[in-house]
Design goal:
The chain has 84 residues and is an alpha+beta fold. It has one domain. 30% of the residues lie in helices and 12% in strands. The protein contains 2 helices and 2 strands; from the N terminus they run βαβα. It has a two-stranded parallel sheet with strand order 1-2. Helix 1 links the parallel strand 1 and strand 2. The radius of gyration is 13 Å and the shape is globular.
């Protein structure tokens, strides 16, 4: 499962995202704790901005060890877990 979420600890999104960052983090935690996924099968890409959807596809996932964009992270995740 791949999550890309705008808004973050340093940005108060107004109007709020349809799925705020806090809910994405809670959802990830519940799925892992309830055994639906292992943490390695999930990727939460945080972009600390008020942008939405394709507006942040070229921005970096701030919580990733290697700077990559939301779009490249999405494609990489799909190639790894879904296949061509």
């Amino acid at each position: 499962m791949f999550f890309a979420n705008g808004g973050g600890p340093d940005v108060d999104t107004s109007p709020p995202e349809t799925v705020p960052l806090e809910e994405a983090v809670e959802f990830q935690t519940v799925l892992v704790n309830d055994g639906f996924f292992q943490a390695v099968d999930m990727d939460l890409c945080v972009v600390d901005t008020q942008k939405h959807s394709t507006e942040y596809e070229d921005l970096s996932c701030e919580d990733h060890p290697v700077p990559d964009t939301v779009f490249s992270s999405t494609i990489s995740f799909m190639n790894t877990f879904v296949g061509p």
